[in-house]
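tool=predict chain=A
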Amino acid sequence: MFNIAIVALRYIFLVFLLVFIFRLVKWMVGDLQQTKRHYSGLRQKNGQPAGAGDPTGGALLAVKDSASSDFRPGDFLPLSRQNLLGRGEDSDILIRDSFASSRHARVFFNEEQYWLEDLQSTNGTFLNEVKIDQPTLLADGDIIKIGGIIFQFVRWGHEVGSAN
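tool=predict ok
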């Protein structure tokens, strides 16, 4: 009798384990499909996907956290060769945050890589929680903080991930 109970418990455990694995795989596939929808929705003016035929590789800034209502976590901002970030109306990425300067920072493409430069902002530009004071090379996955907004630099297949 005891042996039958042990065998039954083993089968019940096996069923729970299989259900758990099935739900985990289903969740991962759904997350991948959602990410694909985000990236496929990004289009340039000519109707091509962001980064298609672009020597810069179609880098993006993904919003990770935001104190501003202009940006929501999960938003993606395509980058061009020169990108001015700040509160000024001439900014490519307009940041309406009281802690952002009019010309706060710039992300630019040079020597086949993207760089981040603080433009002598009052409150500073942070890369991976370190305040920068000179142009700094960006790697895929780097975290950029300007005022109350946190971005993640995304450029797959071109750089290795940052060690930080």
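Residues 2-40 form the longest helix (39 residues). Helices lie at 2-40.
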